């Protein structure tokens, strides 16, 4: 027996349905994974609402999970039944079991539990490429992380601090401010209360910043640009407040020959060797203690609608996982 959370039409959390689905048989290049835990991410909301397009409806939501290999396809080498595995960036995770292409799976170290594995793959690998590849931060730099108390935000703050950066974080509440500070943000600003560019200017003595990591989107985009020093990099990697409206790129020149990028984890891990290197760097950071994955909410998979309401209502902090 196999159950999954699927949508038959785009809409609100109520569009998600817990229903029985066939147990898939792996194709030659696939592996059947029995989930022990499944991750919750804001990208799931984008697919549910239709902001991001799905191949077809109905569709099983969810982008990451961790579990045990139950069966392998005829062409699969390097994986066998019983192996502990994890993955990210593959629609279909909101299920008790599902098939995944073998080259999209990584083996989960024994020292990392299934819930941690499910909570860290998408968010942790996102933090890895942002800090290591999109804009490789250097010790001594001051950086800005929006949504610093969220899943990616907490990992970014911890990892950047471990790399020697001073982190300025933005959050929506005083409670979240304390959480961000506990996880590496030296300065925390409250969105809607603080003038973010003015406070950044004060904190940096007028120097401003080499990079801003922005997952909020519409509500913070212009403030983010105003926080950058000349030649600074604006990394827009999410749209929690809605998509950024069309922008006249001349504004990048006016504000100091700025760089703007809209990266995705899918591109940065498209090659198997990049996926494995990204995951290995993340696993090393977690096992060393430099990064701790904060699982602050756990839901039954059948209660996905409740989880989405909490996520969209900004009532979650850190990472959230589903237990099938």
From TrEMBL:
InterPro entries: ADH-like_C (IPR013149), ADH-like_N (IPR013154), ER (IPR020843), GroES-like_sf (IPR011032), NAD(P)-bd_dom_sf (IPR036291), QOR-like (IPR047618), Quin_OxRdtase/zeta-crystal_CS (IPR002364). Keywords: NADP, Oxidoreductase. Pfam families: ADH_N (PF08240), ADH_zinc_N (PF00107). It comes from the Bacteria. Residues 11-322 form the Enoyl reductase (ER) domain. NCBIfam families: PRK10754.1. This is Quinone oxidoreductase. It comes from Roseomonas haemaphysalidis. The lineage of its organism: Bacteria, Pseudomonadati, Pseudomonadota, Alphaproteobacteria, Acetobacterales.
